[in-house]
Recover the amino acids of this structure.
């Protein structure tokens, strides 16, 4: 991703003029405001605004009358307690607004998270740029042989090169025709709302996306997961980095209890108890299906 | 849209075996269940399930203990009262589940209505069919000259033919390469989650969409409107036809108060009062901008 | 709870007249329709309507074109897979509408679950009945000494009797005055929307509550939990019984993975691995706080 | 409402220490931060935090890359356009967090607006204060004779005095017994989660309430309306005053198009056209019911 000089100048200007506020301020997040963090070949994530910090989570949990006087160590403990016991409403008291540029097929997954506010660039109203996601060769992976919904080994160099050639050529041709359709030189020019249908799903779009911290954590748990598609996972990972600087205690609790944690079924817990009592439990004696047992073994490392 | 013999047989079988239920039954909706109503060239809308009827709306409004004994004419009046005064919760007590097949660029607009439940065909997991929306020639319209977000006159025959040729050829080539990328004959085969990015936005997808009647009316008000894009409006109009048979009183109230109604601003109401008192109000003396005045005139016919 | 003869007659009539439908039918749920299941001293839960069954969950997961032909054993496995991997959208495809009568202080907790549709009896419009929740003596528990948000031992008989006397007398007096305020015999009569403010939180209200199965499971996981307040837990348990008959496979999966399961943090999983490798881990060497360690021990039984 | 010296000191301290931020700042809203605005006899509304300003609405509408360079007059026009055409997503890009103290019967109405985040003071965990809403004598109104859901004339002095006496005495007695039940002096002490059931609906509770501007406008349209109950309307009106200082252009558009506007049905528009053409339309010839006609006449002034 390269910013135009105008874009960079705009960011510099926005960052040059701090103003006084009485609101809660997160120093870590102030450092990120407006900056474009590159993701994939043309995408980015940038923070446009935020509300609240770690202390705001605790303040809401206490519905205290003021900002509270507890030491940071107490705040950290309270945040861990809230996360552990699925008390979600205090985390909803923080909010963040991001500007994201991303391929359309990633946007289609992302938008399935409904509890957020979105303003997307309108291809009915405006003309899309000639920017397509073309994967790096080592990211061109084969269909997984064990998982219907995933990818396996990287393609060999010859097959990879063939795929890249098609992706580039088809995108270029589709965009050439898109431009030719909407052009008004010597013709009427097709409506933009129609012409866009010729564009492939790797074209970039952009949106403002605003979400509260609880729902953002839910998004991150699913999309920063190893099973998420690589092209959305890199966005989730970039956002994780930003959230860590915004609300460090909340993020640490999220990392321990959600990203690094696991949910075990009643059957799995029963097996665990037998194993801790010294019994050698096998899939056959576990009461679990093969798939469950495999996942259970993975959790136990 | 043509159904395969297997699909038609499945529908016939589902419709052949009524079962007894004690729930509220809408005769009008039973007649539609499972049938595929064609929309655009390959799309459809079909009703998979529904909950409630006109009486259920009234019953919820009364939170009566049983089904109530009021005559139908009273139900009709109550429903009109509820609609007029924006009492939305009784309408939320009805629910419908639709199976919709639609082009991806229409799906992208549709999904912006967040208060619904969705299960979409997964192109990570499965292979998409070779089906693309190719507009009928008379629907190929030029960009509107007065409205940045709309379409105007139909394209002339030559320009239209050129556009159609591009749409067809680009879709065919993109799909050929999609197939070639995922094929596993003599190669590893690209992961489906990656290959899909080569497909244009006029390819068809499908989903189950479940929504309550209040939120459905909100969707229909926006999407059955004359300013909505034609390709989503035809879906909304088809759904209107189904809803009319499902909850006739609620639909009639919706038609009068929402589809056929208009919201006037305080300024517009003030102008109206002056006009009814005999004054000849003009845009200049109205206090409205030119755009508002034009829309106000349109409302007054 | 005692039904009036009119109410019972109405239920009998509603249950006497099955009608044919082409929709999915759950035999287990048909047996419950309209019947009032008593909860607490004057409350109840009754099923007014439902949409979908176990097969509908699978059908949505497959977005198959028809009802699908997989054997029941496959459906069961698919449902367990969906629950285990937090695939929530197929469960959202089922919906249920309940009529619930419950004390106001229970309603206040219940309503915090926002993803549902509600029509409550209006005390602005109508007059509330003289019905109050008066706990059974053995349910009158002391404040917990270990948990700020819970109850401990039952009160001794003398203290319990004193409490009961106050609850009864205060409710009776409040209702007498409520009636006296709104009465129009020889006076104007206070507006009902004002008079209601004199009534205590153990008065009964009622509502229609409609929710999809995914969000219902979320409600039940929190409210059928041992830490939930007894007075809402008994409602959740009654609903569990109904859901078990409605969607037996989904309920069994919910029971194993949610009600009977537990979420372990990254720290807890690390401890487990050390314990399974033979190490004697203590709270001091676990890296967990005392509270976390106590909860971890409870999970391991 | 009187603040304790500690509360006032806390507010003063919070307001004494501005910090630099790069985020959008609303000068008008900064002036309100943390201050308690009295409502009713013991209630208040205070702003804890906010996100965005008028410019942020426009920025989202344009999904512009930077803050945009359009003059304020353009922003105002754009905001009016967005409001007029029900483009709600740009307004969702602003967010506000309020701390509200309010009687329980008001809270019960308020919470029905589901699209918001809430943290309420917990009466399971904590002890409620002895603070009850006791209406001013002139607010003690009789049940409306024309509207089942509203109030009419003020009560006469004697009847009013009788009502006030009951409200005060019953609240005092209920609180005395609440305190006596939970006391642990010489007895076990009833659990707080049970004792609260003895408290009437005019006791005060408090919560943090966070909502986006679009949903806040929806709340204000319904609750600042003349038909809303007085006791919630005064909160809505206080919030209107705050929003006006926060986002002046958006509030002005809201005032014109929503608060001061009206929605007319298709039938009503048809009548208007006939009236403007000189016809003397009556209820009988209007096609409207008596209720609709009366409301139509009210709109026309």
């Amino acid at each position: 991703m390269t910013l135009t000089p105008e874009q960079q100048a705009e960011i510099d200007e926005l960052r040059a003029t701090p103003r006084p506020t009485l609101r809660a301020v997160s120093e870590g997040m102030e450092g990120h405001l407006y900056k474009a963090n590159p993701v994939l070949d043309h995408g980015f994530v940038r923070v446009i605004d935020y509300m609240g910090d770690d202390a705001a989570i605790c303040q809401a949990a206490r519905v205290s009358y003021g900002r509270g006087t507890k030491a940071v160590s107490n705040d950290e403990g309270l945040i861990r307690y809230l996360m552990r016991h699925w008390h979600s409403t205090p985390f909803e008291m923080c909010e963040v607004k991001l500007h994201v540029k991303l391929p359309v097929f990633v946007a289609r997954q992302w938008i399935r998270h409904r509890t957020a506010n979105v303003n997307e660039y309108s291809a009915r109203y405006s003309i899309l740029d000639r920017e397509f996601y073309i994967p790096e060769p080592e990211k061109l992976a084969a269909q997984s042989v064990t998982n219907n919904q995933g990818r396996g080994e990287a393609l060999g160099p010859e097959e990879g090169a063939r795929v890249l050639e098609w992706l580039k050529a088809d995108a270029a041709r589709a965009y050439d025709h898109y431009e030719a359709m909407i052009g008004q030189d010597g013709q009427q020019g097709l409506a933009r709302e129609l012409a866009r249908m010729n564009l492939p799903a790797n074209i970039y779009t952009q949106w403002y996306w605003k979400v509260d911290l609880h729902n953002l954590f839910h998004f991150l748990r699913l999309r920063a997961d190893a099973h998420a598609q690589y092209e959305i996972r890199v966005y989730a990972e970039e956002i994780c980095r930003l959230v860590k600087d915004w609300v460090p205690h909340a993020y640490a609790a999220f990392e321990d209890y959600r990203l690094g944690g696991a949910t075990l079924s009643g059957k799995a817990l029963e097996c665990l108890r037998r194993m801790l009592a010294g019994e050698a439990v096998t899939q056959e004696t576990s009461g679990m299906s093969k798939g469950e047992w495999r996942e259970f073994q993975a959790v136990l490392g």
Summary: Residues 134-201 of chain C form one domain. The first helix of chain C runs from residue 5 to 16. Confidence is low (pLDDT under 50) at residues 65-72 of chain C.
